[in-house]
Structure formats: C-alpha cells, structure tokens
Amino acid sequence: MTQTTPTPPTDEIRVAVSAVIFSVRGLSESACPVLALPLVRRTRDPFEGRWALPGGWLNAAENLDAAASRTLEETTALAPTYLEQLYAFGAVDRSPTRVVSVVYWALLRSDEVDAQVAAHAAAGDAPENVEWFAASELPALAFDHNEIVDYALWRLRNKVGYSRIANGLLPEQFTLADLREVTEAILGRRLDPANFRRQVENSNTLIPTDRFRTGNHRPARLYRYNRDVELAERGPLIAPR
Amino acid sequence: MTQTTPTPPTDEIRVAVSAVIFSVRGLSESACPVLALPLVRRTRDPFEGRWALPGGWLNAAENLDAAASRTLEETTALAPTYLEQLYAFGAVDRSPTRVVSVVYWALLRSDEVDAQVAAHAAAGDAPENVEWFAASELPALAFDHNEIVDYALWRLRNKVGYSRIANGLLPEQFTLADLREVTEAILGRRLDPANFRRQVENSNTLIPTDRFRTGNHRPARLYRYNRDVELAERGPLIAPR
DNA sequence: GCAAAAGTGTTCTCGATACACCCATGT
DNA sequence: ACATGGGTGTATCGAGAACACTTTTGC
After folding, report:
1. From B224's CA, which of A40, A194, B210, B217 has a CA 20 to 30 Å away?
2. Is A107 left (phi over 0), alpha (psi -120 to 50) or beta?
3. Same domain, B47 and B127
4. Residue of B1, B10, B73 best to disrupt the A interface, most CBs of A under 10 A
5. Nearest to B151 among A55, A147, A237 (CB)
6. Nearest 10 degrees: Cα torsion B225, B228, B229, B234
7. C-alpha distance from B81 to closest chain A C-alpha (Å)
8. Is the CB of B176 under 7 A from strand C?
9. pLDDT in tens, B1-48
10. Is residue A127 domain-resident?
C-alpha cells in the first residue's frame, strides 16, 4: 500500500476468490451426518477435468467479501449462515499463470442444501459441473486446493471447539442431538451427550422453544439460534456484508 | 481459481503486501517496556505526508511470504523471529485505485532493533521516512491502516494468551521477568510472577541456562528459547520461508 | 538488617470429563 | 414391560488465579 515503485509491475498478477463451502449431508437419517462440500469440475486447460473449489476472478468494482458471496451464490444459489476469510494463497508456482487466491470458508444450512439438491434432481436441471463430496473422501483436486481444504477443515475444527458455530449448519430449529451429531461429524469423535448439553446451555447461544420433536423415544426439545451472540470472536474486523 | 471468465477483467486490480512489525522498546530500563512498530511517511499523493504501514507491490515472480520478508527487510534491515499472514484487505474504497493488500504481521527481537536504531543514529544515516511509534499512541494513518493495526494487535494479544510467542521479541537470553514484562506490555495488564513462571515452565518452550543476570537483587536465571516447539499451532500451512 | 526481586508451596475455584441415574415415549 | 434416547445429578481431575512464604542479593 505504500507505492514505493512508481510503475507497479503487477500487470501479470491476477486476483481470484475461492470458497470452501461446508454443509452437512444426511442429517436426520439413521446414519451419522457427513461433512460435505461442493466442487466444480474444470472445463479448461490448467487441470481440465479435475475438481476444484468454486471461485472466480475478483471484479474491479467488487469487495473481496462480495466476490466470495457471489462465488458461493453461483455455486449453490444459497446464502451462507457464516462466511469468513480463510487465507490468501499466493505461491508463484501454484498455477501456470500468476494468481493470488483469496480464499473464504462458509457454512450452509443443511436443509436448504438438501432442498436445493432435491429440487434440481426433480427438475433435471442439476448443474452438471457441480457435485458435493464428503470432506473425508476428496479426490485429487486442481492446483493447491487439497491443501486449502485441509486448512479450512483445521480452522473449522478449531472454531467448533471454542465457539458455537456448528448451528450454522442446521435448520432454524433443531435438537441438541442434531447439534451434537454435527459437531461429532466435524471433530471426528464422539461427545458425551450430558456434558455437551451443559456446555451449550452455558454458552447462551441457544434459545429453547416450546416445541418438541417426537419420534421413537422421548420427545426432544427444539432450540433455535440466538443471533445476539455470534460476533465478538473475530476481533475488530467488521462482519462480512 | 476456476477461471469461469474467459478474459479476466483484473487489469485494474493491483496486489500490495504490507506488514505490521512489532517490537519492544525500552526493555531492561527502569520503566515498563513498550510495544512499538515502524511506520513509513508517505511521499506521494494518496495520503501524502501521512504515516503508513511499510509495504510495497507484489512482484510477479515473488511469493507472498517473500514479498512480506522483503518489505520487512527494506524497512528495518532485520530478520523477523516470527512472520505470519494477518489478512487480505480488499474493500473497493480503501484506496483511490483498486488495491488488494495482503498484510502480514511480524515480531522482531528488541536487541537487534535497538542496535540498528542506535547505529543509524550514530552514523547519522537514519532512514528519514521511517519512525518507530508506540502501539498505543499511533497517529491517524493512511488508508485503512489504523484498522489493520488494531486487528494485528488483537491477533498478537490472542496469540500471547495460548502460545508462547512473546520470546520472539526478546534477545537470545532473557530472564523470566523480561518475558513477563513483555507479555504484560502486550496484554496491557499485570501478571502474577509466580503463576507466570509455572505456566512458562510447564509449556516446555524455554531451556534454562546456567547463567544468571546480576543486578540490584537476587540474581535471575537466564533462559533461552526452545526451537523444537514453536510450530504445530498454525495448522497444516507450511511455515513461511 | 532491610528492601526488593527471585523463586516455591498451598489453597480455591471453575470448567471439562466420566458416569450413574431418572424420565418419557413408541412398540 | 422394555428398549432407547432425552435429560439430571454428582464425583473427579487439572489448569489457572490468589497469595503466603522462603531465598538471595545490594545497599
């Protein structure tokens, strides 16, 4: 930003924005929910045919956050419940041409994704080049995108530990078991239901409703997210959008 | 990174790299040490005369990390003990022209900085446009650099809490009181010497030497940094350089 | 001897964990 | 009735904070 060089030689450097979009597939089914993310099949030369993170070029009149949202919207047609910058990747050899990628990571509500995917399947207009993959079973991706996903996973797991962010993956109303199972899917280990309940209750991030989900067993209380909390953990940076 | 646009319209976007460089001034003096950082006075139009973070344009054949190191070297002629990417700032209106700044933050050993500054003062070749400021008494900076420094301070304070990073500001050998005073300067509050000692000892980041610093009171043991630890806290990203 | 910092020991509290136990529902 | 998950109670452990106390130096 200090412009020491009179004629900046940056013509050959382009800025891209990508996103690691997390959601949960197979919630409320018998099996365990699985952390998943959408990938885009490349249709042009560098790594043609390989899967890659959704992304695009940064427009000159577009904020970084807006570009990340646009990328996300173009891929999933959905609004994220959480969006945060991950890292700027800028190694010279990460692409045949010089590209600096500012990567974001996001959380999507599972019900919206499920509905979207089901609607596309029914209408037969599923975007041909977008596919959801389980985060634990990714193929070899284009560019350095495998490393990027690894880093995003690390951040997500970290954040799930000290913050109550997992509800960003759940519908408007959900049970504590839902929230616990999603957290378990992220962390990759089982959690004590009793202790999990108390930790969540003490965090004041959830508001109990008077509705219950009935099923095979004792009905479970439904909770909803408390929007007054979420912030204050990201420091003095303004929330995106 | 997915190059959906055939002809990317990125010609007007330039990539800059800046650095928030922290060091400690006034260590081993009677008063409390003060967290300080170098600023550069702008000599051209946007915000001419105002102080700004050291930085420069990213070269086409240069990694982001390398550009940060270069920036740092040009400002201080010193090698950092710690260097980490802070954030990519890319709001459209943060500069008259469209600039995406990838900002790093770094720690410098206080003794090296003191020696450097003293040498320049003696030789009379002090760089006219670089000056060290106390982090708590910054003037109004160019661009969005005040916000950037605030965010870097937040990250530094955070990291000091859960990691043993403060020794990156200290000379090769130092006492526990040195380390505690630096930590106090960063956090802005006093710490219990007894508890601080135990926390540091249990963290295994320090190696006791058999040397002592003698002074007005009981001699204090000198410690040095244990280089085997430091990493593993930054996730799967490779260390810079 | 005294002041002051270096360094040690002890206690208390709080949060996380483990786990025993009761509750409510469908079958 | 009983299996199963929902939900509560309780003992234990460890890290951190508070603070009393001993040690070692310069003056």
Report:
1. B217
2. beta
3. yes
4. B1
5. A237
6. 120
7. 21
8. yes
9. 444 444 444 468 999 999 999 999 987 676 788 999 999 999 998 999
10. yes
